[in-house]
């Protein structure tokens, strides 16, 4: 597939040419040309009429399969552009959905992508119906009037079916989440811009393997694994990557996946330290926008500056200082960890997670009395697996002081031990 890319920049819209080109390549397009314009949005064509004439000439000369706009197009603009250029017109978000389709493997991811596609198409079909009523026979995807109306009904019906199926999956996930809550597990969610290295970090923390590639949107489904921080057993979840200006219809379609961030006890916001500061800053604010939309900014947060192995120590320190200035009052941030997930340099991250745990109600210090020595080994193993044993005093009655997850209380009571919370 061959494409001409179009970028319109203005004060209101942040557009990165590098990211746009990476999106095009990730979707499998050969980039024939990139046309840029600096101006405010034109109501009919998004770009100015003069730039439209320039693109017409390029279309005649290069014969692309599509013209792809880095800006969001209204349904009316998409139709006006199609009538002028007579070639398929898509915008950045349709391009993102094409990438999603290539990456979706699980049933949930495929349903979420289909829902997002249908939500994107719905206003386009409405625009086609409006134009047909006005006497404009532009149609939609080559359909006639009757077919467009039938397709509109099909979209509404299919969206309802998908939402029902996703709700069932969400309910099953909620049951698993409640079980984890009862057991006292702490959930750490990895969030951040696409291709920041979240999946690589999940692998480094858990010692497991999930697909991690140097490409955009490798992860579309949540993946949860166990890992330890200084003796404490935790859960870590990888989530779908963010992108600048993530529109509501994608957030809504992927809500059941993104809600893992909302339900997390700790959020690790992963940033790519190897990028220029302007990109780190842009992606930091884009990530905050999504977290704000999810109402997750009140969660304890750790900023992980990843890929420090690719840049100098001085560069990393400078970005850390600049980030500290940006963090002031914007988040419930605990600190910044400089890490390399690829090389498993995670000491600063472990330290900050451990510090965050002390502020969570799920971890508390108890004195545990064990009378039956035959159960002592099992009890100590349980405490080590889900907490930290601070002190053991042996005698007629063994006394253990331990910092444990409160979910263990029920299991310990079953073993006949006495527990006393220590403030």
From TrEMBL:
Matching InterPro entries: G_HFLX_dom, GTP-bd, GTP-bd_M, GTPase_HflX, GTPase_HflX_N, GTPase_HflX_N_sf, P-loop_NTPase, Small_GTP-bd
UniProt keyword list: Cytoplasm, GTP-binding, Magnesium, Metal-binding, Nucleotide-binding
The UniProt record lists the keyword GTP-binding: yes
SUPFAM superfamilies with a match to the protein in the record: P-loop containing nucleoside triphosphate hydrolases
GO cellular component: cytoplasm
Compartmental location: Cytoplasm
Cofactor(s) for this UniProt protein: Mg(2+)
Binding site for GTP: 192-199, 217-221, 238-241, 306-309, 340-342
Keyword Cell division: no
Ranges where the Hflx-type G domain occurs: 186-361
GO molecular function: GTP binding; GTPase activity; metal ion binding; ribosome binding
UniProt family annotation: Belongs to the TRAFAC class OBG-HflX-like GTPase superfamily. HflX GTPase family.
HAMAP family membership: GTPase_HflX
UniProt xrefs under NCBIfam families: GTP_HflX, small_GTP
Function: GTPase that associates with the 50S ribosomal subunit and may have a role during protein synthesis or ribosome biogenesis.
Subunit and partners: Monomer. Associates with the 50S ribosomal subunit.
Name of the featured protein: GTPase HflX
